[in-house]
Specification:
The protein has about 700 residues and is of the alpha/beta class. The chain has 17 helices and 28 strands. It has 3 domains: about 375 residues, TIM Barrel, CATH 3.20.20.80; about 200 residues, Class I glutamine amidotransferase (GATase) domain (Rossmann fold); about 60 residues, Immunoglobulin-like, CATH 2.60.40. About 30% of the residues lie in helices and about 20% in strands. Helix 15 links the parallel strand 13 and strand 14. The two termini are about 50 Å apart. The C terminus is likely disordered. Bound molecules: beta-D-galactopyranose (GAL). The site of beta-D-galactopyranose has 10 residues, from loops. The site of beta-D-galactopyranose (GAL) has 10 residues, from loops.
Amino acid sequence: MTSPRPPRFPYPVGPDGSRRLVYGADYNPEQWPREVWEEDVRLMREAGVNVVSLAIFSWARLQPTADSWDFTWLDEVMDLLHAAGVGVDLATATASPPPWLTTAHPEILPVTATGETLWPGARQHWRPTSPVFRTHALRLVRALATRYADHPALVAWHINNELGCHNVYDHSDDAARAFRDWLRRRYTSLDALNQAWGTAFWSQHYSAWDQILPPRLAASHPNPTQQLDFKRFSSDALKDHLLAEREVLRELTPHTPVTTNFMVMSGIKGMNYADWAQAVDFVSNDHYVVPGPQDRDELSFCANLTSGIAGHRPWFLMEHSTGAVNWQPVNVPKRPGELARDSLLHVAHGADAVCFFQWRQSAAGAEKYHSAMVPHAGADSDVFRDVVGLGGTLRSLAAVGGTEREKARVAILFDWDSRWAAEQDSHPTALLDYHREALDWYSALLRLGVRADVVPVPQSDFSAYDVVIAPVLHMVPQTLAKELTRYVEGGGHLVTTYFSGVVDENDHVWLGGYPGVLRELLGIRIEEFGPLPEGDSVELDLDGAPAGTLWTDRISLTDGDTEVLARYRTGAYATRPAVTRRTAGHGSAAYVSTRLGAQGLAGLLPALLAPAGVSSELPEHARGVVEQAVRRDADNRYVFLVNRGDEAVALPGVSGEVLTGRTDGGVLALPPYGVAVLRQAARPGGPVPAHM
Ligand code: GAL
């Protein structure tokens, strides 16, 4: 395997030779007759589109039978785009195997936990571990890379598409074989595996490797460590496919950067993107807003986490929508202004590319009611006018390209192992939602106007942050516990929550009382969990008497340096501590034992942030309404001010050159959903806390 290479981002270059932000879409010309292509290219120029992703679902068109190839149409599209100054992020086209392949080789089809085959007819019907699929896929990748290696339109490779979107958990015999190989590498011996999986329980002891299976439908709860390892394995199996395609591309086109579109968004859990980030030359993400009370917080949270995954370097927004999607029960369009605002929120959090699914709305197929840059109504539409407007805005923000996100003082940790382990079955509650708890903390900080970074655990340098919030950090190996202790003793302020520190990396409980390996650091001991049935709540003796839901703990203090910040007023643990903080070394470690939700946390957070001296960067009237995010390089800071609400907001005393947005007599005017971007001189040694 080749060694990691520095990330390379496919920046387009303007006519004056200057760097531009990427603007574009998935482009599916094979769905349209030739004459539409001409119009497409003309409209792309009008909109300022400079990169498109091409051939994502074109396998059947490129290789109509096992032994025939047809590249002529793609040659023509590539040439047309190049002539129009549009670069191509060319897909390896392996996402949807053609009918000739699945007919000849039904053994590539994925199998569910209940033994059902996922038949062809949609997309992504392939087993990540199928050697037959791998052979055919790599043959296609080789053919494409050979043909287009020197095409001037080629700016990047787009491996497969949303790996794992539909096929992350395959329980086939291929998967069983690959799972055993993976386990052999992890544990070396069966004894070690038996120990790690706790197979003394329910007579599960294995005496030969080939007795081991993926967690297929069983009579009762499958072994938890088996389930957890299967999640780890399934993420690795897809990454292995990614690496296999990448190796062919690196061999044939070593100068073209390679990416694949991640799906950092709520509801997608199977792929450990923090681990995948090293496998690509630049990180790409797809994000769709699922309407709900915290929907734009969620957008910001995911963009922020994507930036963390990308090591704070610029990343590529490969897909989002101009309006409605087609896969919700009810598919609501965006309101005027939301298209641009959502896009710019991604840019604020480090995206140097703004791309949509898709360029032209399909007339047929399962996604014909999914919005696009050119809707069914055609170019004479508000959507297309907004698309053209956004192209202009992105041109005015070209200077932002290549800058990093400025580090915040507060970090929220995001840990795939904890997420996978905490949400398994046969737990104190089935209602726990890891992503939602992390998002609640983020929402609370947004309400207060406090910037935070969302960072994946293995990459995090805790010492860079004054406050580290670790919601539901359930799985804490000894090494991580030591790191957190060092962080706190060195002056950091740790905040963690219910169901944290409970198990080790094998999902075995740390004994002696919860929160296990964090007990000493937090100065508390919990003898029993008190999860709350849906609809139940307890009151805390904080201002505003916020309600706790989901979880409570029976807490005792074990250290003279632990103070009680809040107690339960009602419920089984009334009068006992609910929120605690222990001062340790130069820092502190706080524990929140119940789910307070965004509003409750916003009430509690000022007390948790106070020891670190972290407070809002926004004037009172803008808190919760305006989101502030900052990008910077050595010379400049780019301050993004985003109006999250549907009322205008005025920000007085703003300084810096306005790259986009409006000022009225020295007052920055943010219309509903409006975004302003200011350029300020960077003070050496930044970060600079406030924009005013
Ligand atoms: C993504 C996918 C696209 C399209 C889009 C619709 O999951 O990559 O091909 O299906 O969703 O929202």
